[in-house]
């Protein structure tokens, strides 16, 4: 599709990156919901599966995605539209960190075979996932369109680069790069 001679801006690469992350996160939410339903039916779910999905929420949602939005994207929106439009999403980001810490603690208790921890993880995960899904809906329908009008082409280039740096730092921190080097 060509955008030439049209009064329509092409989609910003940075926003497309964030939407792709939302897609990945929603897919993980589906897995978390399936695990939660199994736990609520008193079915056995491996402790490592709970730990792995909790780790994904901590590293991918609570760190990588949150840093891109809160630290890099939102300042452009605030500059043009003021802080009010960001209040709900910022609150959701903070609340999300709290939910992730709770999930992590409960997943550790579950790994130790602690009584009701499976059902508690399930209930916590279902509430967290519902909050995330509502947050993404609001970001994609309210905040991203504002960002697309606020950000200039030069700013977009800088922003996309900054996003890639966040990814590189996160990969290094998690040892993905070291793993690739070791495997080469
Ligand atoms: Fe987001």
Task: Walk me through what this model shows.
This protein is mostly helical. The chain has a single domain (13-172), classed as Four Helix Bundle (Hemerythrin (Met), subunit A) (Up-down Bundle), CATH 1.20.120.520. The protein contains six helices and no strands. The chain has helices spanning 13-40, 47-81, 87-111, 117-150, 153-173, 176-183. Helix 2 (47-81) runs parallel beside helix 4 (117-150) and helix 3 packs antiparallel against helix 4. The longest helix has 35 residues, at 47-81. The termini are far apart. The structure holds fe (ii) ion. Residues 18, 22, 65, 69, 136, 139 line the site of fe (ii) ion (FE2).
Explain briefly what this protein structure is:
With 184 residues, this protein is mainly α. It is 82% helix and 0% strand.
Note the topology.
Blueprint: H1 13-40, H2 47-81, H3 87-111, H4 117-150, H5 153-173, H6 176-183
Helix pairs in contact: 1-2, 1-4, 2-3, 2-4, 2-5, 3-4
The chain binds fe (ii) ion.
């Amino acid at each position: 599709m060509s955008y030439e001679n049209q009064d329509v801006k092409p989609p910003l690469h940075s926003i497309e990156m964030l939407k792709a992350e939302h897609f990945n996160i929603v897919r993980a939410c589906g897995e978390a919901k399936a695990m939660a339903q199994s736990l609520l039916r008193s079915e056995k779910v491996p402790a490592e599966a709970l730990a792995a999905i909790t780790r994904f929420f901590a590293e991918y949602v609570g760190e990588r995605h949150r840093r891109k939005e809160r630290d890099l994207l939102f300042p452009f929106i605030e500059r043009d539209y003021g802080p009010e439009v960001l209040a709900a999403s910022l609150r959701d980001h903070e609340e999300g960190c709290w939910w992730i810490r709770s999930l992590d603690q409960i997943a550790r208790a579950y790994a130790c075979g602690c009584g009701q921890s499976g059902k508690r993880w399930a209930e916590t995960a279902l509430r967290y996932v519902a909050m995330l899904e509502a947050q993404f809906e609001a970001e994609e329908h309210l905040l991203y369109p504002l960002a697309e009008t606020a950000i200039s082409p030069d700013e977009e280039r800088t922003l996309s680069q900054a996003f890639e740096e966040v990814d590189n730092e996160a990969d290094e921190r998690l040892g993905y790069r070291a793993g690739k080097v070791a495997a080469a």
